[in-house]
Amino acid sequence: MDKMKNTPPSWGQSSSVCIWEGITCNNFSRVISLKLYNMGIEGTLSSDIGSLTELQTIDLSYNKKLGGPLPQAIGNLKQLTALFLVDCSFSGSLPSELGNLSQIVFLSLTSNKFTGRIPASLGMLSNLALLDLAKNQLTGPLPISTGTEPGLDRLINTKHFHFNKNQLSGSFPEELFSSDMTLEHIICDRNQFTGRIPVSVGLVQSLTVIRLDKNSLSGPVPSNLNNLTRLKVLNLGANKLSGAMPNLTGMNDLRTIDLSNNLFEPSEFPAWISDMENLTALMINSGRLYGEVPQKLFSFPYLQQVILKNNSLNGSLDMGSNISKRLHIVNFENNALTSVALDTGYNNTIILVGNPVCSSNAQFSETSYCVLQQDPVASNYSISHSNCSSESCPQNLDCSNPYQGMMVMRAPSFRDVADHSVFITLVKDLWEKFGPVIGSVTIENPFIDGDNYLQVLLKLCPITDSYFNRTVILVNLDLSNKNYGPPGDIFGPYYFDAFEYNYPGGRSGRSFKVMIIGMAVGCTFLIVVLVAVGLYALRQRRRAQRAIEVMDPFASWAPSGEGISAPELQGARWFSYDELRKCTNDFPEINEIGSGGFGKVYRGVLSDGKLVAVKRARAGSFQGGAEFKTEIELLSRIHHKNLVQLEGFCFQRGERMLVYEYIPNGSLRECLCGEGGIVLSWQTRLSVALDSAMGLAYLHEHANPPIIHRDVKSTNILLDENLNAKVADFGLSKLASEGEEGQYSTQVKGTLGYLDPEYYSTQMLTAKSDVYSFGVVMLELVTALPPIHEGKYIVREVRKAVNKNEEYYGLKDLIDPAIIRDDFVVGLGWFVELALECLEESSAGRPAMSDVVKEIEMMVQDAGGARRDSAAAAAAAAPSARRAMPRRDASSSSNYFEYSGGYSFSTEIVPK
Question: 734 a known binding residue?
Answer without folding.
Answer: no
